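Kindly review this record before class:
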Amino acid sequence: MDCIHIHGGKPLEGEAAVQGSKNGALVLVTATVLIKGQTVLYNCPQITDMDEMLGLLKTLGCRVKREGAAVIIDASSLHTSDCPAKQVRAMRSSVMLLGPLLGRCGSVSMERPGGCMIGKRPVDIHETALTCMGVRFRKDEKQILAETEGLKGAEICLPFPSVGATENVLMAAVLAEGTTVLYNAAQEPEITQLCHFLNEAGAKITGVGTNCLTISGVGKLQPVTFTVMPDRIVAGTYLLAGAATRGIVTVKNAPVRQLTSLLDVLRKMGAVVRYEENAVVLDAARAGKPVPYLRTAVYPGFPTDLQSMLAAVLTRAEGSSAIEETIFEDRFKIVRELQKMGADLKVENNRKLRIYGVTKLYPARLTACELRGGAALVVAALMAEGESKITGCDYIRRGYEDICRDLRLLGADVEEKRE
């Protein structure tokens, strides 16, 4: 069993670079299914979720080659749309193959996707939207079974700006007959990047960056070479690690415009933020103020993926804070682990977290049970004077190339060991 050992209690000082975007890269990989030819993606993160997705594409018949952060995919030889259960169960992002496989093959069969256990994550919004385009779904509690005699453009209004549903509609619509207009679309940077990728491949998408996307179907897409954007959640993780330890950290290759909501919070806590060429510098020496109320929201609001890490930081704020989680209903699983360290937190109605700052956290043996919660435990351990040990490293590897390496670059005393 792998275990992260952290000797905390000292301010971080150093600089680290941000990897390519996990969520941004994974959806681009699924989009290559639409292209008959060789697509090259640069700056792909070397994480286990990417390994799983590339393995899934190989099983479907795609030719895949990986050279470090570069991934080469040729989907010309795709021969099936029946996705193996084991690989689908391993990651939530496998649901992103719905739109591409329907567009390419006209059918898809897969188990209902797995991923981190952070509450109910149904795909009904995806299914309802794709039904408007001529897709028929067979009712099955364990599987997604879908087919179409031909995708048709449609006017679709999402009941909630779901990132996944927006991505699936986009990828289904680019090869559909006619024009699709998608209202209440998600506006996350990963959506904007997907639109740019598809347009470079020959798609016709307008309204990019807004909540109303118009997609005019085309006959085929062309192979492209594309560079994945930096990971805003990884950048946020390292900035919050700096804030937790009241340190001074430089995060290079950070997507500054995508971090506005986080940087605003850090400034309100007392941190000083300045920008250098292609980098964010955070001086958190006085970042001890609490956050009276914060709610997670869809982009450009505060991201749910950084909520756990912010909560960890606020356990040592000079006063009480409150966080309302509006995206997922079960994302406070780290509370018990933080309480082991002496943190004072209270969950209300599974949606609101009250945090009462304490003067000190104590080292403990902790267990990660999901990706972002695992990163939050790492952040918490950096504040505790003494040695903490964190198991459940596999969850963290799903989204971070090497969190221990990067934190060492920021000045942390951290190491992953086999026990």
Residues 48-60 form the longest helix (13 residues). The radius of gyration is 21 Å. The chain has two domains: 2-19+230-418, 22-227.
